[in-house]
Amino acid sequence: MSAGPPQYSGRSGAVRTRADRHEPHDGDAPATATATRLAVDLGHPACDCFHLALAVQTQYPVLTADARFRDKVRSRPYPSDRIVHVTRAASGGADVG
User: Fold this and answer.
1) Secondary-structure breakdown of the chain: helix, strand, coil percentages, each rounded to the nearest 5
2) Beta 62-64 vs 83-88: how paired, if at all?
3) Are 11 and 35 in contact (CB under 8 A)?
4) Do 83 and 74 meet the contact criterion of CB atoms below 8 Å apart?
5) What is the phi-psi region of residue 23: left when phi exceeds 0, alpha when psi lies from -120 to 50, beta otherwise?
6) In whole angstroms, how far apart are CA 16 and each of 11, 39, 50, 51, 92?
7) pLDDT, the chain, mean
8) What are the strands, taking DSSP E only, across 1-97?
9) Please, are residues 59 and 53 in contact by the beta-carbon 8 Å criterion?
10) CB under 8 Å to 48, separation ≥6 — which residues?
């Protein structure tokens, strides 16, 4: 199933994607099941775990400013390499740690 081109809505120029239209995608089922397992295992909200599941599936990291989420993920061996904690330095620049 192809995502197709983004749709532009009106004068605002806002881009609407498949996710905005809440259209199902065949590739979501494995990520949803993984996110559910992660949420139960980590004791963390499923919305964050869905991002983590997609990161595991696509082999890209999740960037988060949530230190508790990072600590929970890093306490488990299987997804620990998929999370990067991002903090804002006092100088106003972004720190990745």
Assistant:
1) 40, 20, 40
2) parallel
3) no
4) yes
5) beta
6) 13, 28, 21, 20, 31
7) 75
8) 7-9, 14-16, 62-64, 83-88, 94-96
9) no
10) 64, 66, 69
| pTM for this predicted structure | 0.62
Report how far residue 67's alpha carbon sits from residue 49's, in angstroms, rounded to the nearest whole number: 14
pLDDT beneath 50: ranges in the chain: 1-2, 6-19, 21-22, 90-91, 95
Please give the pLDDT value at position 68. Answer: 95
Measured CA to CA, the distance from residue 80 to residue 55 in angstroms comes to 11
- 84 token code pair: 């990067």
